[in-house]
Design a protein that fits this description.
single chain; alpha/beta; Chemotaxis Receptor Methyltransferase Cher, domain 1; Rossmann fold; 11 helices; 20% strand; CheR_N; methyltransferase; CheR_MeTrfase; protein-glutamate O-methyltransferase
């Protein structure tokens, strides 16, 4: 059975309210498919009964399960490759010059899913920073399940086969039964936390690079603008912002400018952008 219009509206409003994700009409089949396992996990006979009970008796835990289920968690190692090449060939050489006093780099993987992007960034820095340098990588996601998975640092053979070169698998992972576990060499530099990018940001130290990739496409224009403004507050004035290939700040926030970065592009503060808390927003 497919979701009724009222059921789809209820789920859409919940996801929009809690995660600012827009579910357009036509996604009923996707929503139902994602919620079938959730309904079963709580003992409901089907999705309709699950949603009906949730409307009668609001349950924050079950609402969170819906958010987790409908959050897209498509990811892989070194996804799309070009942003990582740009980091290696363009961004890091510049940062090594400008951060010579501190010898430290901070990067935020702002939608880290199950951790592959954050750990890919760690591998990149591990292999390309000069001796004596340190780095911190913070991964955040709106899904509690994904944050827990990322923290474990364990991946199946199928997962490590998605974009991870064999040499780096051997060097940075160890066997854990049928799975592979990230080495302590990388884990000590990477942390994960639950975070909703559309809510006010907690206090954070500024970042040199932010990967905000394949996230804005799920938001309306007003939400995109708000997220970009908040990103500006924690991105260093000479920092780099990487978006997904289908995303842009153009027409949304003119305080950013798109710049070439190897074979891809990134975003930086436009010269003359307002200073202060919203210097890029």
């Amino acid at each position: 059975m497919t979701l009724s219009q009222a059921e789809f509206a209820f789920v859409s409003q919940l996801v929009r309210r809690e995660a600012s994700i827009v579910l357009a009409p036509g996604k009923e089949y996707l929503v139902e498919a994602r919620l079938i396992p959730v309904a079963r996990s709580v003992g409901a006979p089907n999705v309709s009964e699950f949603l009906a009970d949730l409307q009668r008796r609001p349950n924050p835990q079950n609402q969170r399960k819906i958010i987790d289920a409908l959050t897209t968690n498509e990811t892989s190692w070194f996804r799309d490759r070009e942003p990582f090449s740009a980091l290696t060939d363009v961004v890091l050489p510049e940062l090594v010059k400008s951060r010579s006093a501190t010898r430290k780099i901070r990067i935020w993987s702002a939608a880290s899913s199950s951790g592959q992007e954050a750990y890919s960034l760690a591998i990149t820095l591990q292999e390309n920073l000069p001796p004596g340098w340190s780095y911190e990588i913070m991964g955040t996601d709106i899904s509690t399940e994904m944050v827990k998975r990322a923290e474990t640092g364990e991946y199946s053979q199928v997962e490590v086969n998605r974009g991870l070169p064999a040499q780096q698998l051997v060097q940075y992972f160890e066997r854990a039964g049928a799975h592979w576990r990230i080495s302590q060499q990388l884990r000590r530099n990477v942390s994960f936390k639950l975070m909703n990018l559309t809510a006010p940001f907690p206090a954070m130290q500024p970042f040199d690079v932010i990967f905000l990739r394949n996230v804005l496409i799920y938001f309306d224009v007003a939400t995109k603008r708000s997220v970009l403004q908040n990103m500006a507050k924690v991105l260093r004035p000479d920092g780099w912002l990487f978006l997904g290939a289908a995303e842009t700040t153009i027409g949304i926030d003119d305080n950013y400018e798109r710049v070439a970065a190897g074979r891809t592009s990134a975003y930086r503060a436009r010269t003359g952008a307002p200073a202060g808390a919203a210097r890029r927003g």
